[in-house]
Amino acid sequence: MEQPAVDLSVSLGRLQLPNPITVASGTFGYIREMEGIVDVGRLGAVIPKTVTWQKRLGNAPWRTVETAAGLLNSIGLDNDGIDYFLAEHLPYLRRLPTKLIVSIAGRTADEFARMAERLEAAGGVAALELNISCPNVAHGTDFGADPVKCAEVVRLVRSACDLPVIAKLSPNVTSIVEIAEAAEQNGADAVSMINTVLGMAVDWRRRRPLLGNVLGGLSGPAVKPIALRCVYQVRSRLSIPIMGIGGIASIDDVMEFIVAGASAVQVGTANYYDPQVTLRLVTQLPGALQEAGVTSVRDLVGTLRVADEVDRG
Amino acid sequence: MLPLVRGKVDRMSCSRSTDLAELAGARSISVAEVPVAENEPLARDTYRLRIYHPPMARRFLPGQFLMLRLADCDDPLIGRAFALYDTVLDERGEPCGVDVVYLVKGKLTRRLARTPVGQRVLVWGPLGNSFPPIAVDEVVMVAGGIGQTPFLAWARELAGQRMFGEPPRRVPVVPRRLLLYGTRTADLLAGLEAFAQAGLEVQLATEDGSRGHAGRVTELLEKILQCGKRPAVVACGPDPMLAAVAQLCFQYEVPCWVSLETPMACGIGICFSCVARVRQDGDWDYRRTCVEGPVFDARCLVW
Lengths: 313, 303
Description:
A: 313 residues; globular; B: four-stranded antiparallel beta sheet; 8 helices; disordered N terminus
C-alpha cells in the first residue's frame, strides 16, 4: 500500500526541524552516551545537558527519587562549564546528523549572553535554549519566575547573537502566560515548557528528606496534566511557538501536546526508563497524523476544540 | 610486598578513566522487551530471574549490570539496576540468557516477586565496567546482604570454568578464591550451592548468629588479613560495609575494589543521578557510577 505523503517538519520561529520529536536537556546526557542505542539522525533535534559558565559539581546524592508515576530529581546542573563543553563536547555534537539546540544557564543575564556569543562563534549550533527554570540550583528560577528578569535575559541574549532563542519556562509560577509574554515581546523565537515541578519526598522513619538537596523537580507521567495545561494556556493567549515538555512517553502523549498547542515536543524522563522511546515516537507519528486526518504536523498544532462559553482563565 | 596486580589496573588511575568517545565505541547495549523465563525463589525474599537474549548474554562481563522494569507500567516507573548473576548457556555452550538475583526491597521488587513467567519486562544492558582482570594468588570476595550477586559469574571466570564477553576475554586463573558472605539471618543466604559449584571456598557470617560466624562479614576479613595473607579484595554490599572493607584493606595494604550499589535512574549515563565522589588531582569530583563504575579501585573513592 502506498503511504500518503506526511509532512513532519515544523517551525519554531526561525528554527526549522525535520520532525517535532526532540529530547529534553538533562535527559539525554551529552548525546554520545546514546550512541548505539538511538540513531539521533532520526530525531527532530537534540538538546544536551545544560551548560553553565563555570563548572558545577552538582548536588549531593541522592539526586533522584522515584514517586508515584514520576521521578523527583535534584541533579543541580552538574556540568564541566562552557570551556569544557566547547572543547570536549561541541566538536562531537556538531558532527551529528541532527539539529543541535544548546541549553544554557547563567547566574546572571550577562553570563547567558557571554555563553550565547561563544556558542554562536564556535559554530554548529542551531538554536539556544535558555534554562531559566531549573529548580535545583540557587537562583535557578530567578529569570523564569519574574517577567522583568525573563525579558532582560531574552533581550540580552538576542542582542548577543543571531541564533534562534527558546526560553524554557517553569511551572512553579503564578502565571506562566505572563512569563511567556515577556519572552515573546523580547524576541524569543519560541518557548519550551515545562521544566520540572518543585516537590519533595520524605522518609518519615528517619525524619529525613530523601533527596540530598531536600527539594527537587518532579517529572514523568505524573506531571503531564500540568504541562498540558501550561501549553494550552500559553497557546490560547499568545502566538509564540511552543515546545511541549512533561511526561511524554507515548505517541498519544505527543498528539495531545500538539493538539493543545505545541509545535514540537521534548521527551524527557521517558528516555531514562525506555531508552529507545524517541525512535518509536518518530516511527509512529505519521500513522497518528493520518488517524487525525491531517497531512502535516503544522495543520494539527493548537487545534483543540473548546466550547466558546468556557472561561479560559 | 603487594601482590602482583597486572593489566590496566596496575597503576592507580583515578583520573577521568572513561573517555566518552572510547566508551561509545566500546560498549554495545541491547534494549529489549522480553518475557520473564524463570522467577525462582532462592532464599527468603530473594529470587533468581532469568531472561533470554543471546546478543546481550554473549557480551556480559562479570561485574556488569542490566536495567530492568515491567513493560508498559507507569508505577513503578523507573528501571532498577541488577548485577549479572550468571549467564545461561544454550546446548552449544553459547551464552543465550541472563540470570539476575533480587531481594524484595521496594516497589519494583515487590511487584517482581509476584510476576509470573511470561510477563514482559524491558531490559537494557550490559552496562557499566566489570571486575578487573587480576593476576594474583588469592582473591577474597566480600559480600554483604544482596551484594553476593555479582560474584558468581566472576568466580566461574577466575576458576577458568567459563569465559565471558564478546570476544570472550581471557583472564588469569586465580588459584585461591574465597567468598566471605554475610547477611542479617541465615534464611537470607542465597545461592550457596552455586557458589560451591563455582569452586569458591565460602565463609558465612550472620548478624544474629543463625549460621556461620556470629557478627559482621568484615570481621571474617579482618581475621584473614591478620593472619598475614595478602589477597586482592573485592567487595559488594551496603556503603558502610564497603567503607569498613576499604579501611581494612588500606590498613593491611592490600588492593581493594568495590562494586557500588548506588541507586540509578537510567543506567546508561544520561541522568547523572548515580554519582560517587571520585578522587581527581588532589580533589574530588562526582562521577557516574553507571558509566565509570560500578567497580572502583577503593583508593579512587572518597570514603
